[in-house]
Amino acid sequence: MTNDNPIHSSAPVGISRRYFLQVTAAGVVTATALGASGLKARAAGYEKFTWISPRGTLEVLDDYPYWSAKKAGYFGDLNTDMQPGPSDGTATVKFVDVGQADMGFPSPGVFSFAIQNGMKLKSVFHMGARDTFSIAFRKGQGTKNLKDLEGKTILLGSAAWQSIVDPLLAAQGVEIKKVKYVEAGWPTWGTALAGGQGDAALSWEGLRAEWIAKGLDFEYWLGVQNSKLPANTFVVRAADLEDADKKAFLEKYLRGWAMGLEFGYQNPRAAVEAVFEQFPTLAKNLGPELGTTSILQQINVFRGDMDKRGGWGSHDMASWQGFFDEILKIGQITAPVKAEDVCTNDLIKPANDFDKAKVKADADGVKLSEGFAALDVDKIKAHLFDSAVK
Question: Which pathway does UniProt place it in (predicted)?
Fold first, then answer.
């Protein structure tokens, strides 16, 4: 990847239609398209259920519900696997589409790329009840009015992320053809912004705290405060929902995630420790306070307004429809999409059918290490949005 390659198209980005056909022709992923590592024929059914990250790494706090649930035994005897995937932003849907993974975690923009390119995927568990995405600026250069970005350059970690930023900007009245993008590479796009390249960069909740740990201190236009668009979601092959055995598996699997989400809500510090046990380097880089800050940012996104939701993972169809209508207007998709056709809440009730009192007892019963026990969670919560543009 280079850090001086502008991307100007307002069409779906990250991969061309021709390149897409090279990936999916005959139902296989070629080594040329996605790299030779890890490509294998998959047996029918879910011998091992593979979830694939959208960010090219698992060493983040974003997936804390899984690690918390795994540690607590909430997945039972299900054979589950987590894979980082390539850093290409569209890999999380491409791998699921061709059977190299079973569930992906795309942003709505990348999900729209899948729909536009004929991938028969369906969203089954909406993790991001609030918009997690934000625009980062160097200190003193931020704006509350995103129209100020017209004529400016936004840095991305992957070209595919333009499909995230375009609808975010358009919904705020920005003429997106007047915005330039530069693919500054993963994980270096934040460092590029700090170094004076570009005018702004895409960020998201949780990452804000991780960037502070790397010495990247920015100010932000925050989607959680200003955007009505949805955020990342879990997608599977639509055909899997027509298979009774696979659907039953998905219900149990998503119940594990929902229990992990509830566990993290009840005891965020214990959830951070579960991730840190899995990834000691992440623990060393972040430490208890920034780790807890990161997870609290994400809990706010994942939980949303639970009083108005059908449980963890429930889709707000109005929000999703608003997103699809917006991207149709800007040409990110070329045909209307009905939210109910590509998103379903059918698995939400069974996913949330667990003993919440037991999960709370499990979470409350965790003996925290000294560093985490000393933290004042309420104090951290009170300062979660201090970096918002004033």
Answer: Cofactor biosynthesis; thiamine diphosphate biosynthesis
Whether 183 and 3 have beta carbons less than 8 Å apart is answered as yes
Structure tokens at 177: 């053809």
In this structure, the number of other CB atoms found within 10 A of the CB of residue 78 comes to 15
CA gap 155, 137 in Å, rounded: 10
Whether the bond between 280 and the residue before it is cis, its omega within 30 degrees of 0, is: no
In this predicted structure, the answer to whether residue 364 has a pLDDT above a threshold of 50 is yes
Residue 27, pLDDT > 70, answer no
Return the amino acid letter for 205.
Answer: E
Q: Tell me the average pLDDT across 156-177.
A: 96
Closest alpha carbon to 160 in 58, 236, 206, 91: 91
The rounded mean pLDDT for the chain is 89
**Which residue do the tokens 């017209």 mark?**
150
- Burial, 246: exposed, middle or buried (Cβ in 10 Å; 0-12, 13-18, 19+)? buried
Calpha distance 199→219 (Å, rounded): 12
Residue 238's nearest CA partner among 109, 344, 79, 345 is 344
The residue to which tokens 């995630």 are assigned: 257
